[in-house]
Amino acid sequence: xxxxxxxxxxxxxxxxxxxxxxxxxxxxxxxxxxxxxxxxxxxxxxxxxxxxxxxxxxxxxxxxxxxxxxxxxxxxxxxxxxxxxxxxxxxxxxxxxxxxxxxxxxxxxxxxxxxxxxxxxxxxxxxxxxxxxxxxxxxxxxxxxxxxxxxxxxxxxxxxxxxxxxxxxxxxxxxxxxxxxxxxxxxxxxxxxxxxxxxxxxxxxxxxxxxxxxxxxxxxxxxxxx
Length: 226
Known about the structure:
The protein starts with 13 loop residues before the first helix and ends with a helix. The chain is built from twelve helices and no strands. It has one domain: Tetracycline Repressor, domain 2. The chain is 71% helix and 0% strand. The chain is mainly α. The model is unreliable at 1-7 and 13-21 (pLDDT under 50).
């Protein structure tokens, strides 16, 4: 259920408020749908949720405001769709067609590299700082965005680990805790240092090395032996 707010976060026109949004299922016009999500990502990541204007998103996407409201209903739902798309994109390295037939280590490394590349994207860090205040004021929204973003990534990683355990590749009692262990091994303190301006962003080569090292440590801990 969409959280109704009195702040600019819940930006909605009176005309659109009476319409039923269509955020789920396959969009009728995929190209237009993707144009809206690309424009929304750019505006949200630059200005945050509260300051982002639907007018600017519509202008960047080359559509009308009514089109956006008809498809997504309100600004939080549009932002939720942007977060989910980012999560889905990273998860392709873990469960998508491109990694069908790949071994567990390859899949974990691919996902870890995609995740760290996103975490060290300066636009993401800027958006995270701006967004923190918005979500602190509206905890219901925070839960929604966590569920489709970080929460979904953790769940999908845990599912892959659970499947590996069923195949006898891993010995792991709690896949969620195992996923959190692996995420910590990949990130270490590097993302915190970056967000606090204590270090520069990791280069792609550094990301690959950090992820490979973390995956190796994880497999040493959880891989089935004997």
